Structure formats: structure tokens, C-alpha cells
Amino acid sequence: MTGEDTLTGGLPAVPRAPGARMIGVAIPIPDPYGPTLQRWRESFGDRLARSIPTHITLLPPTEVNERRLPEIEEHLRLVAESERSFRIVLDGTATFRPVSPVVFIALKDGIGGCERLEAKVRSGPLARPLLYPYHPHVTVAHDLPEEVLDRAFKELADYRAEFTVWGFSLYEHGPDGVWRPLRDYVFGSGAAGPHRA
User: Fold this and answer.
1) Which pairs count as long-range contacts for 47-50, CB under 8 Å and 24+ apart, including other chains?
2) Taking the CA atoms of the chain, what radius of gyration do you get in angstroms?
3) What is the pLDDT of residue 19?
4) Contacts of 139 (CB under 8 A, 6+ apart)
5) In 66-178, which ranges are E strands?
6) Does residue 180 contact residue 168 with C-beta atoms inside 8 Å?
7) pLDDT tens digits for 53-88?
8) pLDDT value at position 1?
9) Which of 31, 21, 6, 8 is nearest to 196 (CA)?
């Protein structure tokens, strides 16, 4: 529920070991909802707005050796192959305050599907502990002054959206601090390929 379990552009600038890559796995929020929520996030002055595509995290930022990427990609392909589409309904705002300065769009439907998928993704070569229990959400304001978080909470309180999840994406955190999708993994087929435009 903190930066620990969401993709964040605010990772500390520490040197990585040779061959280390920072990756994450997430459900991208489709058009028109993803770009709309990204614009909202930017309007609140969130410095991470342009660095993070709107998403629901399945695997938080995780450092891996690039030699393990083929194994990781095969793991993700098999996860996608075993999964099926499910519906997500986004419904209003919630917050992790006071534990973490985050305001997010809550899931009304689709929580179980996200939890099942997260457990499968965060296994095998991607097994790792979390600091907090997994809680699927869509961040719209992070690490901002209290009055701005209050404004985000109020202004998006009536936000509603519904869409079908087709799969998930593997992301990498670049040296410029931007998260970019590397591969899409489609439910049912397990097909993986370059990220779709």
C-alpha cells in the first residue's frame, strides 16, 4: 500500500550491480481511463505522473539480474496462459493515510481476480515478500501535501469506470526514472510480445 507495492518513479538513485534490472508487473488501465487518470494525477502536481503509466500493481519494483529475464518471461507467459479475463469496476477514492501519503481509486469489483493473479505472478522466479498485505488499487496522488491529497480525495470521489482485463504487462524502470512496458501477456493464450501501442 506504500511505494513498496506500487510502481513508483521515486526509487532511490543507488548504483545497481552489473547486469541488474528493475522490473515490475502490472495491469495497465486501458483508454480512455488510464490517460484520464494520469492527467488527473498530473493536475495534482504529482511529480511521478509522467513517469508511471496508470496501472494496478501485481509485482512491485523488484531488482533482478538480466540473465534471469528469459526465466521470468516464461514464468509470466505460463501465468497468463492459465488465466482468464475478468471485470474490474473502479469506484471512488480511498487512502492509505496515515500509514502512507497515497490517495487512490478503489476497486469495487475485480479484487479477487487481482489477488489471484498477484499470487501467481509473485511466485517461482518472482517470489518475494511484501511489507504490507496486497491491496489492488490505482494511485492518483502520492507523497503530496495533505491539502493536495484531500483535494484529490474529494475531486475524484465520484469517479467510476468499468473494463475487462485482457492480461498484464512487464515493465522496466529506466535510468531516466520512467517506467516503460516491455511485454504484454494475454490471458488464455499466454502470448507475449512487444508492448502494444
Assistant:
1) 47/9, 47/10, 48/8, 48/9, 48/10, 48/142, 48/143, 50/178
2) 16
3) 84
4) 6, 41, 52, 102, 103, 104
5) 86-95, 102-109, 138-142, 160-165, 167-173
6) no
7) 999 999 999 999 999 999 999 999 999 999 999 999
8) 33
9) 31
